[in-house]
Amino acid sequence: MALLEIRNLSVDFKTAGGKFRAVDNVDVAVDKGDLMAIVGESGSGKSVSMLAVMGLLPWTATVTADVMRFDGQDLLKMPARKRRQIIGRDISMIFQEPMSSLNPCFTVGFQIKEALKSHLGLDRKQRHARAIELLEQVGIPAPEKRLSAFPHQLSGGMSQRMMIAMALACKPKLLIADEPTTALDVTIQAQILELLTDLQKNTGMALILITHDMGVVAETVDRVAVQYAGRRVEEQNVVDLFDDPHHPYTAALLAALPERAHNRLLPTIKGVVPGQFDKIDGCVFAPRCQFADARCRAVPPKPAGKELGDALCHYPLIKGQPQNKEMSA
Amino acid sequence: MTDRTAELEPPAIPAQPKPPGPLKEFWNSFKENRGAVIGLCIFAAFLFIAIFAPWIAPYDASEQFRDALLQPPAWQEGGSWQFPLGTDPLGRDMLSRLLHGARFSFFIGIIVVSLSLVTGVVIGVIAGFSPKWADTLIMRVMDIILSFPSLLLALVLVAILGPSLINAMIAIAVVLQPHFVRLTRAAVMSERARDYVTAAKVAGAGRFRIMFLTVLPNCLAPIIVQAALSFSTAVLDAAALGFLGMGAQPPTPEWGTMLAEAREFLLRAWWVVTLPGVCILVTVLAINLMGDGLRDALDPKLKRS
Amino acid sequence: MLQFLFKRLLTFVPTFIGVTIISFAFIRLLPGDPILLLAGERGVAPERYAELAAQFGFDQPIWRQYLDYLGGIFQGDLGISFTTKRPVLDEFFTLFPATLELSLCAITLAVIIGIPAGVIAAVNRGKFFDQALMTTALTGYSMPIFWWALLLIIVFSSGLGWTPVSGRMSLMYFFDTPTGFMLIDSLLSGQEGAFRSAVAHLILPTVVLATIPLAVIARQTRSAMLEVLGEDYVRTARAKGLSPLRVNGLHALRNAMIPVVTVIGLSVGTLLAGAILTETIFSWPGIGKWMVDSIFRRDYQVVQGGLLLIATIVMAVNLLVDVLYGMINPKIRK
C-alpha cells in the first residue's frame, strides 16, 4: 500500500479575476522510503499540490480530490484536529526561504522543541536532549549553544539546517522539501541536498523533492514526476526519464540542460506557462510544443499508459520521435 | 507574463482598451470599499447642508420661541411638527441649530486642515532638504509640541489667546501640524534619493523647483490621507473645546457648545444632549470611513490606524 | 542595547529643555501684565506690586528669569498655587494617583479587549465578525467622548441607577488614603462596601476613557496581524501541526505585538487628553480636572507647572515604550 496516495487532485483559487485552477487532476503516489522529485517551472502548481496535502493553503483555495490518503488514513474526511496530529509528526515540510520561515521572535531551540512537546509529549529534559541530537544529525556545530540563537543570527544555510532539524523532530514518514536550495548559495546547495538524501537513507523516510532544477533531480532522486501548468505530464524513474523522455515538454526541459547542450546556443522552450487568462482547449503544452498539430490544439490528451510514463500527450515520444502521428493524419 | 505571450502570438483584439488613468484607477479601488462609499455619501450630504443651511433650516438658529421651551421632538408626547426635533431650553428650534452647526463644523475642518497642512507640508519639505542640524532642530521642535497632549495644549493656547472659535481653530491647527511635518519629511527623504530627482538636478532645475514641483507631488498620497484624518480630529477637538467653554461661545450653534449648554438638562430633555452628539459622531465617522478608503486606495502600504 | 538606550536618553534632554521653554514662555505670553494676572481681580497696591515683581523675578532680564525658573525646577520648585497657596508639585502629587488609577484601568481594559478583538478579526478576515468589529472600532474611534460620557450617565446612572454620577468614593465612607489609589485604600480601610463603592465610581470613567485607545489598539492589532499572517514563519508553525490558538495567538501575535506596543505607548498622550474631558465630566479629582479648573480660575502657576509635569510624563512614557520596543524586538536586542 502506498504511503501517500492522491488521485485527481485539483486546487482552485478565488482571485479578483475569477477562479484560477492551479492544480488540475494530478495523481501522486509515494511509497514508504521513496525518493522522488516533482519538477516543473514556476507556476506549474508543484508546490500548491503539496501544500494541499499539508492543508496549508490560504482560505481562497478550494481543494478537491477523489482520493487523498496518507498511511491508510483519509486526509479529506478527517477532522482538522486529527489532521493536525499527522501534520508535523508523520508528514513534515521544509520551504524555499529558510530565513523567513523561522519565526524571528523565538529562539530556534524553542521552535524545534515546540513540535516535540505537542506531538510526542516529551518532558523538558527529553526535549532538550532530542533537540541537541537533531542539530547534530543535521550537522550543526556546537548545538548546545545554537539552541538559544535567534534566527537573525544564523546564515541561510544554517537556517535551512534548522528547518530540516525541525521537520525531522518527530521522525516523520514523509518529508516534503519545497525547493529547499533555491534561496541558498551554490556551494551550500550541494551540502543541503546531500544532507537530505543521507537523512532519507538513514531514517528510511520517504522524501518528495520539489524543484525546477533538472540537474538537482539527476543527482538526487529515484523517480521523477514532471508537472506543467497544473498537470502531471509524465512520471518515470530517473534513469529512464533522462534516457528516453516520453513527453515533448520533458524532452525540451532536458535539452535545455547545459550539460546536454551540443550547440553553442543553449536551446530554450519558447513562450511561457499559460496564465490565468489564457484559454486553452486542447493540450496545455500545445502552444509551445514543436510537434503540436490541429488535434493537439483541439482535444485534451489522456495519459499514455505506464510503459510510456503516463505521458499526457497524443503523440508520446519514443527516442525523441512522436508516435501514432500517422493515425490522425 | 501576459505581455510576453502577446509578443509571441498576434494580438487577438487589435485595439486594446487603454489602461485606466490614475484618477479612474483610484476611483475603481475606492468604490470597492463599501464603507468608504457610505462615508462619501454622508460627507456629501453634510457638505450640502453646510452650504445651504440658511435656506434649508426652518428657522433662524438664534430665534427664540418663548412659549415652546424644551419642547420634545415631534414623535414624542408633547411634541409638534412645528419643531420636528424639539426645542432647546431657550425655545430655539433644534433642527435649525443642528443644520447651522454643520456649517461651523465644516468651516472648522476646512480652515484647520488648510492651516496645518500648508504650514506642516512647507516645514516638512524644508526639513527634508535642509542640512542635518536644521533638520534635527525642526524635528526636535515638533517632538516638543507632540509631547503635550493635544487637547491640553489647545486649551492652554486658547487660554493665552482668549476663548473664541477662531482661536480654538488656530490652537488645533498648531497641535495637528507636527503630524504633517513628520509625514512630509519622511516621504521627502525617501523620494529625494530616487533617480528622477537626480535627473532633475542634472537638468539644472533650481532648488525650489526640485523641492516643490519635482519631489512634493510624489509624496502626496500619505499627506492626503492625513488631511482626511485631521479633518475629523479638528471637528472632534473643536467640539471638545466648545464643550469645555473654550471654543465657540454661546449662542453660536456649534455642536460642542450646544452640548455644553444642554448639560444641565441631561436628565430632563434627552434630545438636547443626544442630537448634537449624534451629529458630531456621524460626521466624524463618515470622514474617518472616507479616510480609510482613501488610504487603502491611494497607498496599500499605509496600513496604519 | 545599552548604546541604544543611551542614544535615546540623549534625545530626551533637548526635548525636555524645549518643554521647559514652552512652559516658561506660557505666563509671559499671556496678554496683560503677569503680576496683575497673578494677583487676580482685586488688583494690588504699587508697593505690593514691586514686592511681587521682585519675588517672581520679573525685574530681571528674561534669560536670567529662565535660568532661575530652570534652577527652581531642578529643586522641585514649580511655584505656588494662588487658590490653595500650596506648592504646585505637592498638589500634583496629591491628585496624580487619581488620574493614574483611572488611566491604568482604562489602558488595561483597552488592551484586554482590544488585542483579542483585533486578533480574532484578522483571523476571520472579511467575515461578518470582522466587519462588525471593525465598524464598531471605527465608531469608537470617531466618538466624541464627552458626549459618550453623558450618554452613559443618562443610561447607567440616571436610567438604571447602577453607577454613581461623579467622584471617586461615596460620602458614606471616610478613610486615610496612604497610596492614593481608591481601589487599594478602600481595601486597606477594611470598611465594608468601600471597595464596591470605589469600583462603582470607577466603571463609567474607565469605559469612557478606554474607548478611543481600545478602538485604536483593536484596529492596529488587526492590521499588524493581517501582515504577519501572510509570513512564511506562520506557515511553518502551521506545518508543525500546532493548534490555531498557538499559531495565531503565539507565533503570529508575538510578531504583531511589535507595532502594537508602540501604539499602546503613544496612546498615553491620548489618554491624558481624554482624562481632561473625562475627569471634568465625572468630577474625578485628578490632574485633568485640576488643569481645566486652574485655567478657568486663572491660576497660571498651576497651569504652567502642570503643563511641564504632564509633558514630562508623556516623554518618559515614550522613552519607556522605546526601551520596551527594543526588548520585544529581538533584532534590536542582540
From TrEMBL, chain A:
| Pfam families, per database record | ABC_tran, oligo_HPY
Q: Which terms are listed as keywords in the entry?
A: ATP-binding, Cell membrane, Membrane, Nucleotide-binding, Transport
Q: What is its main location?
A: membrane
Q: Which SUPFAM superfamilies match?
A: P-loop containing nucleoside triphosphate hydrolases
Q: Which InterPro entries match?
A: AAA+_ATPase (IPR003593), ABC_Ni/Peptide_Import (IPR050388), ABC_transporter-like_ATP-bd (IPR003439), ABC_transporter-like_CS (IPR017871), Oligopep_ABC_C (IPR013563), P-loop_NTPase (IPR027417)
Biological process according to GO = peptide transport; transmembrane transport
CDD domains with a match to the protein in the record: ABC_NikE_OppD_transporters
Query: Per its record, what are the GO molecular function terms?
Result: ATP binding; ATP hydrolysis activity
* Record's GO cellular component terms: plasma membrane
What's its membrane topology? Peripheral membrane protein
Superkingdom as given in the UniProt entry: Bacteria
**Localisation per UniProt entry:** Cell inner membrane
- Where the record annotates domain ABC transporter, the positions are 6-254
UniProt cross-references to PANTHER family, sorted A to Z? DIPEPTIDE TRANSPORT ATP-BINDING PROTEIN DPPD, OLIGOPEPTIDE TRANSPORT ATP-BINDING PROTEIN APPD
Q: Which family does it belong to?
A: Belongs to the ABC transporter superfamily.
Identify this protein by name. Dipeptide transport system ATP-binding protein
Q: Which organism is it from?
A: Tranquillimonas alkanivorans
From TrEMBL, chain B:
Which residues belong to any copy of the ABC transmembrane type-1 domain? 102-291
Question: Where does the source fall among the domains of life?
Answer: Bacteria
Q: Which residues form a coiled coil?
A: none
Q: Name one GO molecular function term.
A: dipeptide transmembrane transporter activity
Membrane topology label: Multi-pass membrane protein
The keyword DNA repair appears for this protein: no
Q: Does the keyword Transport apply?
A: yes
> GO CC terms for this protein?
plasma membrane
Where in or outside the cell it occurs: the entry states: Cell membrane
Task: Give GO BP annotations, semicolon-separated.
Answer: protein transport
- The annotated region (Disordered) lies at 1-20
Q: What is this protein called?
A: Dipeptide transport system permease protein
Q: Which organism is it from?
A: Tranquillimonas alkanivorans
From TrEMBL, chain C:
Q: Where is the ABC transmembrane type-1 domain?
A: 96-321
Molecular function, one GO term: dipeptide transmembrane transporter activity
Instruction: Spell out the coiled coil positions from the record.
Output: none
The record, for SUPFAM superfamilies, names: MetI-like
Q: Which keywords does the record carry?
A: Cell membrane, Membrane, Transmembrane, Transmembrane helix, Transport
Its predominant location is membrane
Q: How does it sit in the membrane?
A: Multi-pass membrane protein
The name under which this protein is listed is: Dipeptide transport system permease protein
Q: Which organism is it from?
A: Tranquillimonas alkanivorans
The beginning of the lineage is:
Bacteria, Pseudomonadati, Pseudomonadota, Alphaproteobacteria, Rhodobacterales
